[in-house]
Amino acid sequence: MTNIEDKDWSRSEGDSWDIVSSVGFTALGVAAARAVENREADPLVRDPYAEHFVRAAGEPHLIGLLDSSEPKPPNPGTAPRHIGLRSKFFDEFFINATNSGCKQAVILAAGLDVRAHRLPWPAGTKVFELDQPQVLEFKDRVLAEHDATPTSDRREIAVDLRDDWPAALLAAGFDPEVPTAWSAEGLIIYLPSAAQDLLFERVVALSAPGSQVAVEATRGARISPNGARCRRSTPTRAIRCPRSTSPRFSTTRSAPMSRSGWRRGDGRFRGHTLSNWQPPTGWRSRSCPRT
């Protein structure tokens, strides 16, 4: 069976969209994992467009994954179940946050996820999707081909998160005086330490009281430019490598955020946590709304 984990998921300076490497393959790989999960009898995440993205890109490695008749391994560290759990966690985060007063949602590095189309957003919710221009162009083309209609007020922002994305966000109609639900899903591990700090500082600066943030994180690992596992000086903002073992999701508090009035919640969405969605495997969840 072709494995998503066999590819290099790391970022490099100045990289851009490519369907067989770097950012492009990362987005497609995650979409392929969601497509496999979507085929389950009782999937953790329902994404009717994930397979369309993979087949539209025509990448043989991932098409082979979809066409394989072998069953998906039960280990949550493997890509399909890992992505299913991750997607479920962030889906529940957004549903909970936007039904608790957050009128805006910002998805940093949105990739090929279609939450703006598949989640039951409260009426009038603005959903801002930030990612590379080529990623969003490809995404929009495939969605248009399948007559996809958003369930939110979707705003696309074509920008590299290493650039001045706050300015682009504000220009797209983001209101920093309105409580916001933020997500950094499958993102932090690809950023160097300084870029991680800057990202959180910008989120803090743009967040009104009542805002919430969800971050995929683990202690002590990130992907270096050559794809190797390495240590960081500030482990609470590190994130697990898709190749690593003992997976763990959390919505975690960063140093810049804890200094700015954010507090940690219990990660319980509609009475559930990750442990309710899969067998016991050491996964934990927490949330960090801003007071």
Automatic annotation (TrEMBL):
Q: Which InterPro entries match?
A: Ppm1/Ppm2/Tcmp (IPR007213), SAM-dependent_MTases_sf (IPR029063), SAM_mthyl_Trfase_ML2640-like (IPR011610)
Keywords attached to this entry:
Methyltransferase, S-adenosyl-L-methionine, Transferase
**First-tier enzyme category under EC:** transferase
Name the EC number(s). 2.1.1.-
An example of a Pfam family matching this protein is LCM
Q: What GO annotations for molecular function exist for this entry?
A: methyltransferase activity
Amino acid composition bias (Low complexity), ranges on this chain: 242-256
What are the start and end residues of every segment in region (Disordered)? 241-291
Q: Name one GO biological process term.
A: methylation
Keyword S-adenosyl-L-methionine set for record: yes
Cross-referenced SUPFAM superfamilies, in alphabetical order?
A: S-adenosyl-L-methionine-dependent methyltransferases (SSF53335)
* Entry's family note: Belongs to the UPF0677 family.
Function of the protein: Exhibits S-adenosyl-L-methionine-dependent methyltransferase activity.
Supply the name of the protein.
Answer: S-adenosyl-L-methionine-dependent methyltransferase
